[in-house]
Amino acid sequence: MTTPSRVKVAAIQLTSSDDAAANIANARRLLEQAAQAGAKIALLPENVALMGRRESDKFAIAEDEGSGPLQQALSDAARECGLWVVGGTLPIKLAGESRVAAAVLVFDESGKQVARYDKMHLFDVSVAERGETYRESASIAPGAAPVVVDTPAGPLGLSVCYDLRFPELFRSLTAAGARWFVVPAAFTVPTGRAHWETLLRARAIENLAFVVAAGQTGLHPNGRETWGDSMIIDHWGVIQSRLPHGEGVVVAEFDLEAQARVRAEFPVLSHRRL
After folding, report:
1. Cα separation of 85 and 29, whole Å?
2. What global pTM score does this model have?
């Protein structure tokens, strides 16, 4: 795939509810805004279709890969907007497994699915500040492998939310050729306040890679509050655009020639010893 020197990308911030149809319609509205702003690729947040009242709610909307109204809606949005869509995460059924995958599905501008990544690192933690406990592994099966996909903005490394805390994943994506990363997320407020920006900028800086992060934001029907602060960061760790709160779209332009020049002049990636 031929990559131009400059490409506009977008991150979409949502407050998803327990109404999957309404969530997808809202996502479609903001994808149209991203396309109108000149973006060639847009990222949706984690749990784009559903922030259920119970973890088990995702089973009711889970789909077989390649079939179902949620996937069709994202495929249609990509085709009709002429936009690559990185579909946050959708619950996808797994053969022989009672749990589902938290799958990032990538659709090209024709609406064809061209990549899938299943979230590898699952959020099984307690957040003391809020007295909240999360056990994603009860309903989600972990993915097995990193994924890099060619896009109009260059090779893209896929990740989801809690993956952000594992720099070895991003290093492996860089070693496989990634020039930018996406991080669809639903960060908690305490961890978002403490670590979100720092971790995103660190992944950009240490890999000399662009990072596009799209978050859930605000209060959801299950009582959970998410951090938001969707942003686009350049290969030097500079925040190009951000949306701290509320639903909306952030857009920024990748300067891929500048990235290539910096990677050549500051060859930290070739200096690795381990």
Report:
1. 13
2. 0.97
